[in-house]
Amino acid sequence: MNLRAHPLVRMLTALALPTSDYVVFGSGPLLAHGLRTDIGDLDVVARGAAWQALTAAARPVTAPSGHGRMVRLQIEAADRWLPGFDTDRLIDMAEHHAGIPFVPLTEVRRSKLTTRRPKDRADLALIDTALTRKPFTGDL
Description:
Elements: H1 7-14, E1 22-25, H2 28-32, E2 43-46, H3 48-57, E3 61-62, E4 69-72, E5 76-78, H4 87-92, E6 95-97, E7 100-102, H5 105-115, H6 121-130
Parallel strand pairs: 2-5
Antiparallel strand pairs: 1-2, 3-4, 4-5, 6-7
Helix pairs in contact: 5-6
């Protein structure tokens, strides 16, 4: 799969955000690793110039988690992730796929274990297989 051809990735790259100031989180890294092709949205964590560009395009609102602010365009961009996830650290540890910064799968795994949503079970199994860990059993 050509990552840059995915419609959500095309929307993101059209924003021309500085790659040093954002990172793709949520299910996006599973797309980058070829673990999923059918993601419903693209979650981005942004700071600095990237956050300024996003907030110039749309008014920020309180994130559904109550933690931080977010901008909803065709992607969902936030100025922070869940509690316990440092924005600067996430962006600085990014892995680049097709020139786009993505959070490592280990951080996606940690996030999905933090939220413990039933819909994350399948993703956890995919991540664990990719990381060659003991497979996720489905117990949350």
